[in-house]
Each structure stands twice: as structure tokens, then as C-alpha cells.
Structure of Sensor histidine kinase:
Amino acid sequence: MNEPNLTSLLEAMFHHSKEMIIFVNKSGEIVHMNAHAASTLDETDYDRSQFQHICNHCQGMYMSGGRVACSNCYLYQDEIVSFQVYMRTREGEVVPFIANFQRVDPENEISVFTLNPLAEQLKTQEIEHQKRLTQRIIQAQEGERKRISRDLHDGVTQELLNVLLEMRLLKYVDDREALNDKMVKSEESLSHLLDYVRNISVELRPASLDDLGIEAALKTHFKWIERQYGISVDFSFTVEQKRFNPEVETVLYRIIQEAIFNAAKYAEVDCVDVSLEEMKNEETHHIKFTIEDAGLGFHVGDTPVGTGLGLFGMSERASSVGGTVSVDSAPGRGTKVFGSIPV
């Protein structure tokens, strides 16, 4: 059996590979390219002189830290494995590719540049990301439903049963003074129950957020936090515009609400600083927010105490309106949640 020699195999791979294979010299001029590269970077779209240079097709190189400046281009490296690059195709589209760059002929300074389409991988990653996101949203929703169900059962249901029993006993009370005492106790129980239901309602969706805006809603919530947890909130609001898009107001409210709940549960503090600041110039208009405590703190990279869905939820809420949220913390020096949202 005659085995084909290595040269013929390499030639076959070069000509028939579905991978784009491009040889370039030290100046970035294209020396050779295979059929797949030629059909993708079609020379009829360009002048011959333009087509011959890889820079006229390349739209930017990206590494883990973001876009890489041209001064640090792959052309000036001996080898870079698995980086992302955007190339302009014959249709004029800018398409992402996974690239490898390696010097194969050091004497003549010839390098091989290989490209594989990234679009399908990105689509698959996006689908997987959406699945994970949906799962975590469902977990968060179920966790919140369990909490509300438990509050209703332990608080509202038990209180209603107590009032019901007291009301049933009233018909057996003949003494007017004793009857008045029981009526007063029943009234107190109903008042307590009304406050409890009102608190649950405020947690779910404060009416003041829709009626009066973010500032009034937060001030009301901070008073409730102080009553419930004994934590005072030092609130700074330097925003000229009083009302914003309802979705933006909701996101701001929920992020601040979650950050304060986390401080109340885990930070062991009696005071939290909250600030909202309007950042505005000719090009951008943002609301900058900061929630900071001087509590226990934690290592940001560690597995979070509890479900961890609070931090995840804040990030997802911010990104849903084009904003960002970050957490800075360390054991013994407190926690700072900060970010901005475009308005």
C-alpha cells in the first residue's frame, strides 16, 4: 500500500480545508490563501493592492481584556493561539472568527493565519446562556414565592385564625367589661394584620413608586427598613429630573432594595449609605447609584452566603436597561454596590 507523502497531504489540506488558511509576510501582505479564504475575502470587492494586505480585511483583534490596539497586532507576534478577530467578508459584513497566528518560516518571516467562523459557536453559547439565565430566574421566582407563601402562612393565616377564635368566643361573654377587653384585643390583632399585609404589598410593589417616583418610594422604603431591621439609611439624592422611564425607576428601586436587604441580613451594621447622582453631559445621561456599608464584608469571588441570586438579580436587572452594577467588598472593610443606568 502506497501512502501519500506529507507534502501532498498538506497541499490537499490547504486547498480543500473548510478552515480559512492565509499566509502573510512580516508586513501583513497576503502571500497565499486557500480556496475557502479566497471565496470569503473575495478580491473582486477590492483593488488588487488592497486585497493583498490583511489589514484591509481585519476589523479588530480581541483578547480576554477587550480590543487590542493595532500596535500590539498579531502581525508583530511570533505566535498567538485562539484569539478572536473580526474580518470583513465579500458581502461587506463584519464577521467574528476564532484565529490562530504562527510564524512557520522564520527565515523569510512568513506566518500562517487560520480562521474558523465563530457565529455558530456564539449562537450556541447564547442559547446556553439563555437557558442558564431562565433557570436562575425561575429559581429566584420560586424562592420569592416560597418566602411570600411562608409569610402569608406564618403571619396572615395565623393572625386570622387568632381573630376568628376570639370572635367566636365573644358570643359566650356576658360581662360587658370582659367583652370590651376582647374587642380591643381583636381590634389590635386586626390592626397588626393590616400592617403586615401592607408591608408585604410594599415589598411586592410600592404604590409610591408609580405615583410619586423613585425618590419618594425609596424614602418610604428606608423608613420601613428602619422599623423592621433597626437600620438607618443615610440617603443622598442629587438628581434634578424627578421622574424617569418606569422600567428604569423599577430597576433602580429593586437594586437598592436588594443591596439593603443583603446588608441587613449579612453585614451586621446599623447604618447604610445610599446615594443617587445624576451624571449628564452633551452625549450621555446616567443615574449613578451607590449602596455602601461598613459591615463584615466578604471575598467577592467566594461562594455567596445564601442563594447568591440577589447579586445575580441585581446584575441582570441593570443589564436589562443597558446599565451596569459592580460589587466591591473584602472581609472587615464592608461592601459597596455601585453602578449606573442610562436614562
